[in-house]
């Protein structure tokens, strides 16, 4: 991730629309209303609660997208299928007597940032838990598990004791003075930690969420590993919650790359995943009774992204409200209903013809399905993270509606059904796959027209090139397309005017990230079949 990537604070994850004040005032009163509306039957609400047919287009795209996680691997590679990648980062962590060789490089550079890496793991776990059957149908489930374990192996090693977590391998200042392949890097790669004296609640809580969600993924296929992940998750959550403080304050240098302006959302996010993983009422009480008012105090819904997990938490806890939990108190039930109501506000904001629809969209129409709309667009930096995350949440919520036989979504006087949300998700995915004014696929390797000058060190330098740290910049400035195709990379995306400049120096638009890929993998996995059946995580 390049240093000049601004913004990185939660302020750039905020919605660009204002909810009608009355919607906030009447939230509690409307709980009864949505229960009644659930009983209504719209003309499209009678879909069978069975897996739909496979959509080859999305299966092919999923297989392509999965490859980028292989491209980003650090460490001693196993069954490596990327011809231009080799072992790298083998000494990471040695100065701390740790093995931090695994994990993934976050983007086009060669630093392993723990915060976005943990989010990558959490979202990938969520995708597997919701859509593992679809992944299996196109022979990508084991691939996804292997990619996830490569990250969680690193995260386990990065947590050597209860209140210590290593959150970075490599020095971004040194790294950005070089343009080189990861296999030949020679600069120092120090490890950075958070601890009691220098806390980092957001990164510790996100890592707890990653391990808790991954423990569910591996529960039936590797129970010993699953239990180990859960133990680490619980320890990290206690650390994050007991010693509260932002890692951006404790370690100011991270502000240039992955800044955070708060940790409350990560604490709720982690506790929500721990509840799913343990069914321990303490975690449910934490998010619904002890801290449940936090989401209401923040006002308008937010965009789901690596630095803001509130919308994701609302949808994840809606799952409990849709399908029920064990031995819940009335206060916990009310808290879950409130999370679901706020999740509904998020959904209403995404639907293009909703009374509360966000205006944060491009103008270009996508007409694959009945309703045409533009791409959700929030920031010129890494623009695709917001529409892909929004589409993923909309798809998940749509499938919750289908499986619970919830027929309607109420949006300030208008009724919608689950297909409206699914169609929105399809529109956003189709834009990325080439149904856009540029007629360009933003998924590298998909179709015949996609970016050729991706901002990525390894992809831009020939395997046979004999270059060091500084002389490698000639490859950054080269006018030739990348000699190695970063298949599966999801680039940053278009400007609001829907233009894309395919230049290697254009990191704003042309740099891919693993966390964007994880979200897109989740979205594609959910679209592999024409409908999905929600199953119990355990």
**Helix count?**
20
Distance between the termini: 36 Å
Arithmetic mean of pLDDT: 89
Strand content: under 5%
Order of helices and strands: HHHEHHEHEHHHHHHHHHEEHHHHH
- Secondary-structure class: mainly alpha
Biggest sheet statistics: 3 strands, antiparallel
Strand order of the largest sheet: 1-2-3
Number of strands: 5
Runs in which pLDDT lies below 50 for 5 or more consecutive residues are 4-47
What does the radius of gyration come to?
A: 22 Å
Helix-residue proportion: 40-55%
User: Outline, from the CA principal axes?
Assistant: globular
Family: Belongs to the glycosyl hydrolase 9 (cellulase E) family.
EC number: 3.2.1.4
Keywords: Carbohydrate metabolism, Cellulose degradation, Glycosidase, Hydrolase, Membrane, Polysaccharide degradation, Transmembrane, Transmembrane helix
Transmembrane segments: 12-34
What does this entry look like structurally?
Pfam families: Glyco_hydro_9 (PF00759). Keywords: Carbohydrate metabolism, Cellulose degradation, Glycosidase, Hydrolase, Membrane, Polysaccharide degradation, Transmembrane, Transmembrane helix. Residues 58-524 form the Glycoside hydrolase family domain. Its EC number is 3.2.1.4. It comes from Escallonia herrerae. By secondary structure, the chain is mainly alpha-helical. It is 44% helix and 3% strand. The protein is built from 20 helices and 5 strands. It has helices spanning 21-25, 30-37, 56-71, 114-137, 141-157, 172-175, 201-217, 223-242, 247-250, 264-278, 281-290, 294-297, 310-323, 330-350, 385-403, 418-432, 457-460, 473-476, 507-510, 514-527, and strands spanning 112-113, 165-169, 191-194, 409-411, 414-416. The strands form 2 sheets. A 3-stranded antiparallel sheet has the order 1-2-3. A two-stranded antiparallel sheet has the order 4-5. β4 (409-411) and β5 form a beta hairpin. α5 (141-157) crosses α7 (201-217), α13 (310-323) crosses α14 and α15 packs antiparallel against α16 (418-432). The longest helix is centred in the first third of the chain and has 24 residues, at 114-137. Mean pLDDT is 89; it is low at 4-47.
């Amino acid at each position: 991730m390049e240093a000049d990537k601004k913004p990185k604070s939660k302020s750039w994850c905020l919605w660009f629309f204002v909810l009608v004040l009355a919607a906030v005032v009447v939230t509690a009163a409307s709980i009864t209303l949505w229960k009644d509306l659930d009983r209504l039957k719209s003309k499209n609400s009678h879909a069978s609660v069975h897996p739909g047919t496979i959509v080859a287009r999305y299966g092919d795209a999923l297989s392509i997208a999965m490859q980028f996680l292989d491209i980003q691997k650090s460490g001693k590679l196993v069954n490596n299928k990327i011809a231009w990648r080799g072992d790298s980062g083998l000494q990471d962590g040695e100065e701390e007597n740790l093995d931090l060789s695994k994990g993934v490089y976050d983007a086009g550079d060669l630093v392993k940032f723990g915060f976005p890496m943990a989010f990558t793991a959490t979202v990938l776990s969520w995708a597997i838990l919701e859509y593992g059957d679809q992944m299996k149908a196109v022979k990508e489930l084991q691939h996804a598990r292997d990619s996830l374990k490569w990250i969680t192996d690193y995260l386990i090693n990065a947590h050597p004791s209860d209140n210590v977590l290593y959150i970075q391998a490599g020095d971004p200042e040194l790294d950005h003075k070089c343009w080189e392949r990861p296999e030949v890097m020679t600069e120092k790669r120090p490890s950075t930690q958070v601890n009691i004296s220098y806390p980092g609640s957001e990164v510790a809580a996100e890592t707890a969420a990653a391990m808790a969600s991954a423990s569910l993924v591996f529960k039936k296929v590797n129970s010993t590993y699953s239990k180990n992940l859960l133990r680490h998750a619980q320890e990290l959550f206690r650390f994050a919650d007991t010693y509260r403080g932002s890692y951006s304050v404790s370690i100011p240098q991270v502000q240039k790359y992955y800044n955070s302006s708060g940790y409350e959302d990560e604490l709720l996010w982690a506790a929500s995943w721990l509840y799913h993983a343990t069914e321990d009422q303490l975690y449910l009480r934490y998010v619904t009774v002890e801290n449940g008012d936090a989401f209401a105090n923040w006002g308008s819904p937010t965009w789901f992204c690596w630095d803001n997990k509130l919308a994701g938490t609302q949808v994840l806890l809606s799952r409990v409200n849709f399908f029920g939990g064990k031995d819940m108190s009335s206060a916990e039930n009310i808290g879950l209903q409130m999370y679901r109501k706020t999740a509904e506000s998020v959904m209403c904001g995404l639907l293009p013809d909703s009374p509360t629809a966000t205006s944060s969209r491009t103008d270009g129409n996508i007409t694959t399905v009945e309703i045409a709309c533009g791409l959700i667009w929030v920031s010129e930096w890494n623009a695709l993270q917001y529409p892909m995350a929004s589409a993923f949440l909309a798809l998940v919520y749509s499938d919750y509606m289908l499986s619970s036989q919830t027929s309607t979504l109420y949006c300030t006087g208008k009724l919608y059904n689950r297909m409206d949300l699914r169609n929105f998700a399809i529109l956003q995915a189709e834009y990325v796959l080439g149904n856009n004014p540029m007629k360009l696929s933003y998924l590298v390797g998909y179709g015949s027209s996609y970016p050729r000058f991706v901002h990525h060190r390894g992809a831009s330098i020939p395997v046979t090139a004999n270059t060091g740290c500084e002389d490698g910049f000639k490859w950054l400035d080269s006018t030739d397309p990348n000699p190695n195709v970063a298949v599966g990379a999801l680039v940053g995306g278009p400007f609001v005017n829907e233009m894309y400049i395919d230049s290697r120096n254009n990191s704003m638009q042309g740099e891919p990230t693993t966390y964007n890929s994880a979200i897109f993998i989740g979205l594609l996995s959910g679209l592999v079949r024409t409908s999905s059946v929600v199953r119990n995580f355990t």
